[in-house]
Amino acid sequence: MTDPVNAAQRALWNAQPGATWVTHQAVLDRMHQPMADLLLEAARPAPGEQVLDIGCGAGQTVLMAAAMVGPSGRVLGLDISAPLLDLARHRIAGAALPGAEVLLADAQTWPGDGTTVDLVISRMGVMFFEDPVAAFANIRRRMRPGGRLVFICWAEGNPWFDLPAAACAAHFGPPEAPEDPGAPGPLAFRDPERVCRLLTEAGFANAATRLLRPVLTPGLTLEETLALCERLGPIAGQMRAHGGSPADLEAILARLRPEFAAFEEHSEMRIPARMHLCSARA
């Protein structure tokens, strides 16, 4: 029987968006490297620790954490996207990191494998839960008492989302306001007070957030950045919603190009970002 929990997100990430992330994995890893570095710097996986990586995608943070815990430790990545996990397994097989593995599972309902973990991490992978309190409570049950939860998520005020959304609104007209601002999606955890409240309701202690200001897309060109915007984020969503044509896309990108070009330095994009680094104890 198909699990009805998070069904919409499961369908999404096993369809075109998941395939798009697979296709652009190398560029996306470069884009997200600053967030991965900040996450693991804060989480500090130690040799021998048992680590759970939620929403691990194509495996960037699984590989990084596995190198830190060493052969005596273990990093298990969970994700609901089969295409992304197929790529993650391929990357793990070539990395000579025996403690790294991934599993197709939903962290909101995963029953665990009989072990408890010292640390749970996530790089922008926890904002898609249908029921965040139930999901975090289930994650906490997989942790040892006092275990650490550390994740990074999008805050309010990111040009990466705001500028493409504005370009789409100028072309198609303003989108309808969402019925639930906290609905599953990239910006579901933009309110730090809500994040702390959800973690506390799920049974975590010492919930806290800290605003970070990393720079996105280091090393990417303007054209690479625009190519990503075509396929991910607000433009892709609005094109699907409006049945947009190639001419619509060309017009939107023409509006967006000078906006993003303002962040170009020496032929390299440096887009400022705002992220929440969130932490708690089991």
Task: Please outline the helices and strands.
Layout: H1 7-13, H2 16-23, H3 25-43, E1 50-54, H4 60-69, E2 74-79, H5 82-93, E3 100-104, E4 117-123, H6 132-141, E5 143-154, H7 159-172, H8 192-201, E6 205-212, E7 215-216, H9 222-231, H10 234-242, H11 246-261, E8 264-265, E9 268-269, E10 271-272, E11 275-281
Parallel strand pairs: 1-2, 1-4, 2-3, 4-5
Antiparallel strand pairs: 5-11, 6-11, 7-10, 8-9
Helix pairs in contact: 2-5, 7-10, 7-11, 9-11
GO molecular function: methyltransferase activity
Family: Belongs to the CFA/CMAS family.
Organism: Pseudooceanicola albus
Written account of the structure:
With 282 residues, the protein is an alpha/beta fold. The protein has a single domain (7-158, 179-220, 272-281), classed as Rossmann fold (3-Layer(aba) Sandwich). It is 44% helix and 21% strand. β1 (50-54), α4 and β2 form a beta-alpha-beta unit. α2 (16-23) runs parallel beside α5 and α9 (222-231) crosses α11. It starts with 6 loop residues before the first helix and ends with a strand. The model has no long low-confidence stretch (mean pLDDT 92).
